[in-house]
What does this fold into?
Amino acid sequence: VPGVHDAFHDFRHVIGMPCH
Amino acid sequence: MQFQFIDWKKSIIMGAIAGMLWGWIAMFANTVTGAFAFEQSLLQHLVTFTVGGIIFGIVVSGFLSLLKDFLPFKNSLVSSVFIATGLWIVLFLGGYGLALADAERYHFNIPQGIQGLILAALLGVLIGFSWKIKEKEA
It folds into this structure.
């Protein structure tokens, strides 16, 4: 799903999930 | 568990409302703590934190509907916090597995992890309170 990864990038960091 | 007693529509709606509120609180909390330096615009955050919060809220509220009677806690607030934090831990372990497999791409940050766990517990509290209100109405 192109774009989803980048779209939710900040959200994932804020909720503490491992991310790039 | 007798499934015909589940008011699933109400459960999903309450989860979505609590989750949306939680998404906004998470956005504000990170602004205060500074655990992660935002890289996107406020408009993008409003969309992604609202959508992300709604999805998390629905999932936690849905699992609470299904598992409430199986959990050892009589208080729905405690059950909700247990499910929300449990779900967060499961997802975190999945992410940790990805970090082990591809450390260059996925890595975790301890302050963000602590913030995330606290936020997960807060989501449980918000959903638990909405359930308490529903139980009083019933």
User: Anything to note?
Assistant: The interface with chain A takes residues 23, 26-27, 29-30, 35-36, 38-40, 44-45, 48-49, 52, 88, 91-92, 95-96, 98-99, 105-109, 112-117, 119-120 of chain B (CB under 8 Å). Chain B has a mean pLDDT of 83. DSSP finds four helices and no strands in chain B.
